[in-house]
Amino acid sequence: MTMSDFKPKHFNWRVDGKVAHITLSRPERKNPMTFESYAELRDTFRDLVYADDIKAVVIGSNGGNFCSGGDVHDIIGPLLDKDMKGLLAFTRMTGDLVKAMHSCPQPVIAAVDGVCVGAGAMIALFSDMRLGTPQAKTAFLFTRVGLAGCDMGACAMLPRVIGQGRASELLFTGRTMSADEGERWGFYNKLVAADQLEAEALKLAHQLADGPTFGHMMTKTMLKQEWSMSLDMAIEAEAQAQAICMQTLDFRRAYEAFVAKGKPVFAGD
Fold it and tell me: If you average pLDDT over residues 92-117, what whole number do you get?
């Protein structure tokens, strides 16, 4: 399956070589999520499991902002009229988006500028790596609208990224985490100037896409699966995973390039 010619209806998509670049639409409203964009993004990341031509994904900013969360008029208002079954269907759909991001084999890089709040903060959080700008403002706003902080896996993932105490503060208060805090706490891997953000994210994505992509897939798989393993189970699982990777042609290419004092050209097989 290939996705180079994919044309989504509810967000922007382009493919540069082996890298897919996603941005949310409606920058005049700071790129809010809608019922339709949630569902289409979920389905897209599910399809990426089978996309042979896409080796890395960048979720970028648009018009100086990443995402302002669920659209107040298109989502928040209509939710007030839904019954429990309808509400649960919606909250499960939002969770299915980040589960699909977490499960797709490609490394996902979030390139965050400006506003990154609510569901937008969760999309950034469930990316495998995050680059930010000094202007990035990240907030998990759920308690500020009368909800719990445990939305879309926030209570599971955020403590793993920045630590339990810091995560607790952000999830209880809903306050904004500055870009400097985010970098110090490990939320952002790196801060770059806004005019360099897209280029830096794409540079990293292409570096990964040109690497041993089967090995990257296995790395992402083990990072996910080892959450629920004991140490002994994890070490055994990694032994099996590495033995599988040792059967790939990329492993042989790396050895032959080393012997020849050259640089390996990986093909992902």
Answer: 98
Q: Which amino acid is at 227?
A: W
- Tokens representing 163? 């630590």
**What's the chain's length in residues?**
269
List the structure tokens of 57.
């994904």
Residue 72 has pLDDT above 90, yes or no: no
Q: Residue 76: its pLDDT value, please?
A: 84
Give the model confidence (pLDDT) of 213-231 as tens digits. 999 999 999 999 999 999 9
pTM for the full model? Answer: 0.95
Q: 2 with 51: CB under 8 angstroms?
A: yes
The CATH code for residues 11-209 is: 3.90.226.10
Q: 107 to each of 52, 117, 241, 257, 267, how far by Cα in Å?
A: 14, 22, 17, 25, 16
Listed in sequence order, the residues at least 6 apart from 256 whose beta carbon sits closer than 8 Å to its beta carbon are: 264
Which phi and psi (to 5°) does residue 22 adopt? -115, 135
The whole-angstrom separation of Cα 20 and Cα 163 is: 31
d(CA 177, CA 184) in angstroms, rounded, equals: 11
Cα 197 to Cα 70: distance, rounded to the nearest angstrom: 24
Q: What is the CA radius of gyration of the chain?
A: 19
What's the CA gap between 124 and 252, in Å, rounded? 35
Q: Hey, where are the domains in the chain?
A: 11-209, 213-259
No. of helices (H) and no. of strands (E), the chain: 11, 9
DSSP 126-170: TSSEEEE-TT-EEE-GGGGGT--S--TTHHHHHHHHH-HHHHHHH
Distance in angstroms (rounded) separating the CA atoms of residues 142 and 156:
15
Tens of pLDDT along 193-215? 999 999 999 999 999 999 999 99
